[in-house]
Amino acid sequence: MKYFIAFALIATVCALAQAQEQTCQVDVQSACGQTANGGVSNCNARYAAISHLEPKLQDYINLQLKKSYEYLLLATHFNSYQMNRPGFQKLYQGLSDRGFDDTIELIKQVTRRGGSIDFSKAHDKGVAHPPEVHLNELESLARALDNEKELTNGAIHVHTSATHGTTQNREHDPEMAHYLQENFLGKQAESVRKLSGYANDLSKLVTVREPSLSVYLFDEYLQKQ
Length: 225
Prior knowledge:
Layout: H1 2-18, H2 24-31, H3 50-78, H4 86-112, H5 137-163, H6 174-205, H7 211-223
């Protein structure tokens, strides 16, 4: 009797699965059939607009890695015995570490939503050649400010794509938009504000009679931040 009940329960599950289309239950129904190795490809974590946002997130992750690499080169440049600017080295090392950490968190978010990241694909915005990093202090701040604005616009682009889509075409993704809002947009706005202030302050200091002393004192200030 117990075998009959168990068989009836399995038959009921398979019958219910047949009523669904393109769902995890369809795959379960297939696994209940005659084939021993039935797949369950629809039993995944993908939903909402992840398929629409996946390539955009891939581009933004690549951009984060590129800027992290550029900041690392700047930090190395100012840490040399010729430049000897520990304050600038600290600033750019921090930005490089932050970019790498943001990359890891983005990869975790994409995979949590059932997506994947492929670093084997060629990226037209990647680092084909090492960027020019032999810059003076003010030029480096201008480069960093441009980088932060580029990263901010990249986050806004993905956020806009997640927000302005529609539920019908599966391009609307409130969860991904909220994630970007909480973890990137505010932080990038603060970074742009800070670097723009640094660039304007230093540009005024180098116009005084002793610009080398002004740059030295500004580097001392950066060390304390």
